Amino acid sequence: MTAPFSLPGLPGLNLQVPTFRLPAFVTRLGQRLPQWPHTLGLVGGLNGLLLMKLLDTETLEPLTGRVFAVEVEDTGAAARFTFDGLRFVPLLAADGPAPDLRFCATLSAYLQLLARQEDPDTLFFQRRLVIEGDTELGLLVKNLLDAVEWPRLPFRTARS
């Protein structure tokens, strides 16, 4: 069992993301649905990090023109995108170029990464996170995401 974590910016709110896997019918259903909403959501979030200055375009320069794929294996979701030097751009054509870097994990593994409950190395060595493609690029992306300093958000409880 993993230890509880505090959400970034919410120090008094301890939560725990359990390790789980969605049923196979969810995967089959998700694979039949359009993938563009996942891609637009992920790209929008990444571009939001740029706007909030949590990611710096100068440090992202080595990502320019590279193709990335992020797959959530138990939801059937897949997102492909690139970085054009200024922003992240969705790739919506299914027959586009092969990704330079591909990440694949379950929904719970991604949630644990986002919450910083688990680190990518641990998930990789537990075989819960698959990273395929350019190894140097994968290490660069991992280090860039690890360096993100989440802002502290004001938090009030009912007692405040």
From TrEMBL:
Stored InterPro entries: SCP2_sterol-bd_dom, SCP2_sterol-bd_dom_sf, UbiT
Keywords on record: Ubiquinone biosynthesis
Keyword Ribosomal protein: no
Pathway per the UniProt entry: Cofactor biosynthesis; ubiquinone biosynthesis
Pfam families: SCP2 (PF02036)
One GO BP: ubiquinone biosynthetic process
Ranges for domain SCP2: 57-146
Protein family (similarity comment): Belongs to the UbiT family.
Function: Required for O(2)-independent ubiquinone (coenzyme Q) biosynthesis. Likely functions as an accessory factor.
Name of this protein: Ubiquinone biosynthesis accessory factor UbiT
UniProt source species: Oryzomicrobium terrae
